[in-house]
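Hi R.,

Here's the chain you asked about this morning:
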Amino acid sequence: MDRFRTLGAEQLRMIGSPERADSPLDSPDAELLQRLRTLEQRINGTPENVEQGLAKLVLSLIEFLRRVLEKQAIRRMDGGDLSDEQIERMGLTLMRLEEKIVEMAAQFGLDPDDLNLDLGPLGRLL
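And here is the predicted structure, written out as tokens:
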């Protein structure tokens, strides 16, 4: 794995190298280099923070799904599809899930706002 990371870093240096005669600044290589640098900033994966990065990704996805489920529950509630007992149980479940996400984020040194991932041209996740 480290060998591939080293090769990838070397390729980035070569693409961005001003010594490359076939790579003017407005070439597709320069655009690729800029995209790779942007991606590298978003991923920011180092051996030291891989655990936190993975936790951020997983918790972000869980928070996204929690919000989708919450909206679906509200639609079902407004549509009269749920009994009072089901509404209470679903509300309690979603509330506990949110508390657990906040708790787990704190264990990894993440703020709940950190879970709103930047998806580049698509905008923010949440």
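One quick note: The chain has four helices and no strands.

Cheers,
M.
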